[in-house]
């Protein structure tokens, strides 16, 4: 465990808590893409299946349980909670996220560490996580105004991936030059997807104006 | 193997 990875995990945890807070406190999920949340739930389930088979550390197991339960809780709220589900922008959240699932799965069948069920699920979860934010970014572009909690949510999510890239660089130089192409390439793609959002977020912060994304 | 240590990350 190094500081970059710990910071990455904490900002990731924070992004989920900010989202849960927003939904629970305001009893509203307007501006939140349910599709992105469903993709994240699939990512966590597909990646953390080793939760019951391989014990790595208490921290590792606790965080896996937290991520799976929080993403499931968010999806449940957006689908079942009587007050929250009414505020879901159904007609705005139109990204065909099934395509993302299918593409990630095909990629995982081709590019994986070993052609085993667990490795393919792991690679699938890595590829899917890289693109899972797309429905959310499209929804933000559509709804133009970004309420600050949703903005912070995306910001923390991007920061988590940026910290992980620093973590991979650190591990590469300190733990023997093991090259791990799958998470590296997927992680770079994922962080690049946030780059434009970061740019507009920074502009809105600098000019102290409400975050407006160009149409 | 290389892939194993990748699994210690979240």
How are the SSEs placed, and which strands pair?
The complex is a heterodimer of chains A (215) and B (10).
Chain A: H1 3-26, H2 34-47, H3 58-80, H4 82-86, H5 97-110, H6 117-131, H7 134-143, H8 148-174, H9 181-206
Helix pairs in contact in A: 1-3, 1-8, 2-3, 2-6, 5-6, 6-9, 8-9
Chain B: H1 2-6
Can you put this structure into words, describing what you see?
- Chain A has 215 residues and is mainly alpha-helical.
- Chain A is 73% helix and 0% strand.
- Chain A is built from nine helices and no strands.
- In chain A, α5 crosses α6.
- The radius of gyration of chain A is 17 Å and the shape is globular.
- Chain B is mainly alpha-helical and 10 residues long.
- Chain B has one helix and no strands.
- The longest helix of chain B has 5 residues.
- In chain B, 0% of the residues are buried.
- The chains are: A mainly alpha (215), B mainly alpha (10).
- The interface between A and B is medium-sized, with 23 and 9 residues.
Main beta-sheet annotation of chain B: none
The overall pLDDT average of chain A reads: 93
Q: Termini separation of chain B (Å)?
A: 18 Å
**Share of β-strand residues of chain B:** under 5%
Helix content of chain B: 40-55%
What are the low-pLDDT stretches of chain B, counting only 5+ consecutive residues below 50?
A: none
| Sheet with most strands of chain A | none
| Helix-residue proportion of chain A | over 70%
- Report the average pLDDT across residues of chain B: 64
Kindly state the number of beta strands of chain A.
Answer: 0
**How many helices of chain B in DSSP terms?**
1
Q: What is the SS-derived class of chain B?
A: mainly alpha
Number of strands of chain B: 0
- One letter per element, helices H and strands E, the order of chain A comes to HHHHHHHHH
Radius of gyration of chain A: 17 Å
